[in-house]
Specification:
This protein has about 325 residues and is an alpha/beta fold. The chain folds into two domains: about 5-225, P-loop containing nucleotide triphosphate hydrolases (Rossmann fold, 3-Layer(aba) Sandwich); about 225-295, Alpha-Beta Plaits. It is about 35% helix and about 30% strand. It has a six-stranded mixed sheet with strand order 6-7-8-3-9-10, with helices on both faces. A four-stranded antiparallel sheet has the order 2-1-4-5. Strands 12-13-11-14 form a four-stranded antiparallel sheet. β7, α6 (about 165-180) and β8 (about 185-190) form a beta-alpha-beta unit. α3 packs parallel to α5. The protein is elongated, with a radius of gyration of 25 Å.
Length: about 325
């Protein structure tokens, strides 16, 4: 795999003794969208801050396209664009000047054609001469992305990119992130919105109390950890499940009008077809059925809660 970011045995302990990160190991390939999920205080911001050179690591190594963030700081940092959660802009500056200035901060020579291309791709070209104070919240967030892209980074970090924005704008941002990927940019985002990761990410990482507990391709994760559920609405109430149908995962509802069968998609539990055949054989008639599958949010909550229970033991 052609990695753009390699993190090896990264840890961070603050002077207070608090360990924010514990032996983080992660590889991210060029051109992927990687979503980092975790509760408040889990270590997401600390991890991003170390990679971006804002916070010093206690131990470990981070390579950005082969450049060490400590020993090759300038080269590593020039390859990274960061869009923080907070909107901090110079209200009285114009869009064009703000983005051009950001490019200059990285020692990049002026490139009006590139700035124009970036503003057009972010639907900001018509606002190029507007003062930032006149922009809407959504436009300001796009401007933050334009500034982060101004020096042509290979990796773009989005820290809670849709925090505090409405649903419509959130979907626009999702589309924008996909466009950035199509442009060849590697996108790493942190988010509280699970559906955001489910919608966009190629891979998911879950961090809990400073530890990266899981990294998995999104579809593989949902297939491996997601539960499927089959609900059968019975033709008539069933007093009890026949002993011959005492199958793990099969439950009769309290009103005796529904059977629910919960199963994992990757184990050796009985398949749906076999289950229906057994029900029919024992005279259990149903009038309707439907299936559901765990969402990424269900999986995330389950993993986080599992960790809490482990820590309580």
């Amino acid at each position: 795999m052609n990695n753009i970011l390699t993190i090896s045995h990264l840890s961070k302990i603050y002077q207070s003794g608090f360990q924010a990160l514990k032996d983080i190991n992660l590889e991210i390939s060029k051109g992927e969208i990687f979503a980092l999920l975790g509760q408040n205080g889990a270590g997401k911001t600390t991890l991003i801050s170390i990679i971006c050179g804002i916070v010093n690591p206690s131990s470990g190594q981070v390579l950005v396209d082969g450049n060490d963030i400590v020993h090759d700081y300038r080269n590593a940092r020039s390859l990274i664009g960061l869009v923080p959660q907070e909107l901090s802009t110079d209200a009285f500056e114009t869009v064009w000047n703000s983005v051009s200035f950001s490019r200059g901060l990285y020692g990049k020579p002026p490139n009006p054609a590139f700035i124009e291309k970036t503003l057009k791709e972010l639907s900001l070209w018509d606002k190029r001469d507007n003062k930032i104070m006149t922009l809407s919240g959504g436009m300001k967030r796009r401007l933050m992305i334009a500034k982060a892209l101004s020096h042509e980074p290979k990796i773009l970090f989005l820290d809670e990119p849709t925090a505090g924005v409405d649903v419509s704008l959130r979907k626009d941002m999702w589309e924008l992130v996909r466009e950035l990927k199509n442009m060849g940019t590697t996108v790493i985002l942190t988010t509280h919105y699970i559906e955001e990761a489910e919608e966009m990410a190629d891979r998911i990482g879950i961090i809990r109390k400073g530890e990266l507990i899981l990294v998995e391709e999104k579809q593989s994760l949902m297939k491996k950890l997601g539960k499927k559920e089959l609900t059968l609405q019975l033709q008539s109430p069933l007093n009890m499940i026949p002993e011959e149908l005492n199958i793990p995962g099969l439950i009769l509802s309290k009103d005796q009008c529904e059977l629910t069968y919960t199963f994992d998609s990757n184990n050796n539990q009985m398949g749906i077809v076999e289950l229906l055949e057994k029900l029919s054989k024992h005279g259990v008639v149903f009038r309707d059925l439907h299936t559901t599958q765990s969402s990424l949010e269900d999986i995330f909550v389950s993993l986080v809660n599992e960790g809490e229970h482990i820590n309580e033991v």
